[in-house]
Amino acid sequence: MSSERTAMTSVDRSWLRMDTPENPMMISAVLMFEQPIPIKRLKRTLEERFLRFRRFRQRVVEKGDKCYWEDDPNFDLDNHLHRIALPGQASKKELQELASDFNSTALDFRRPLWQIHYIDNFNGGCALLIRIHHCIADGISLVRVLLSLTDRTPEPKLERIAKKVAIPKPQGNAATRFLHRLVDSSQAGWQQAQLFLDSVRQEPNYPLKLARTAGGIAMDLAKLGLAPFEPKTSLKSQLVGRKKVAWAEPLALDDVKHCARTLGGTVNDVLLCAATGALSRHFTEHKQTIPDCGIRVAVPFNLRPLDQPIESLGNQFGLVLVCLPVEVHDPLMCFRQVQENMNRLKQSYQAQVTYSLLDLFGRGPDILERRALDLLSNKASAVLTNVPGPRHPVYLAGSKLVQPMFWVPQSGNIGIGMSIFSYADTVQFGITVDKGIQADPQAVMNYFRDSFQHLYDAAMSHAHGLHIAQAS
């Protein structure tokens, strides 16, 4: 193997092989800025901060049934950064249509798998439309990478551009490297044995706890495999590969937190309840039968410590299936049901199980992964992400970021992706919908805001009633 080539991990390989014409495996973002960004300064920022991750200079090569990362010998930033302008008044509608177009288009596999389009003259400022393949890293990592390009003030102190990040290369021949790996594995095994014995000494019932954990993992694996398929609704239609993108006007994060505190839940519970109400309203508006057992959404669950620096990319997350009680129309009852479902999942090992399955599928033949993917994607109607962003405004190359939106790809026959992202004391909500699904993405965005308002009003009314009862 070339010294400039490294093997792709089995989990990253799983995401690479999920790529289909109907669902390109791209994580995409639309970032809207208050002022135009000077192109030269943007390039300098990308060269200094983005390209310090070697992966963004590498392309994917396949040799037989193996996949590798290889330095692109003809890498040029201009192949990945493009400048374009919107037609007409360059409004939100035109930007959504452009994002829809690019989200329906695959990346060029001859080059490193990412692109940035600089959008001139949007709302007096500019916008960036970013696409990065999922095999490079998971959504949480990539959000952190993109935020690392920003500063808390308009005038950062840029350091000298580093053309290439030095990465230690393996020394010696293949036999030497094999012996090093063998020694490392032996040392890791001995350390694990020592930790186990220490745990037994400190806690005699530790083996029993370990057995219970193994039993819990086995149980969650069985539950995942035996979970029934999603009910047939308009959200599970034949995909055509053409995406429609929309986003809502942001909510005030303080309002969401106030609602969560009043109901004794979390911000995540409130937002999932609002998403549930939005999908329920979709069924009602289209005069469709609402499933009496709810619908499930696949939610990525981060397995990487959030305080761990992003020094290496890759995918470190699992998926959990969350049931949204769309059949429950009372907002407070809906909230309690969502809260109960989330509390149950927090005690499970479902995220670890799905991560292990991705690792297993990435090591096996392509047909095994395809069949497993079809099986799992039949058990969810949508993908929903909820990623926390910075509490304060940030600046990219001197321009203030006004509104950010991020989407992760869908897989298999799932055609809906919903995204929740908190930023600068606001909550952003966006959606991408395959054109084969009869759903108006902008209408669903409006339903989301209405659903949150109904929950907020019900929470305040309930709290007021309790206050009066206690006073009397």
UniProtKB/TrEMBL annotation:
It catalyses: an acyl-CoA + a 1,2-diacyl-sn-glycerol = a triacyl-sn-glycerol + CoA. It is an enzyme of class 2 (transferase). GO terms for molecular function: diacylglycerol O-acyltransferase activity. Its EC number is 2.3.1.20. Belongs to the long-chain O-acyltransferase family. PANTHER family: O-ACYLTRANSFERASE (WSD1-LIKE) FAMILY PROTEIN (PTHR31650), WAX ESTER SYNTHASE_DIACYLGLYCEROL ACYLTRANSFERASE 4-RELATED (PTHR31650:SF1). NCBIfam families: acyl_WS_DGAT (TIGR02946). This is diacylglycerol O-acyltransferase.
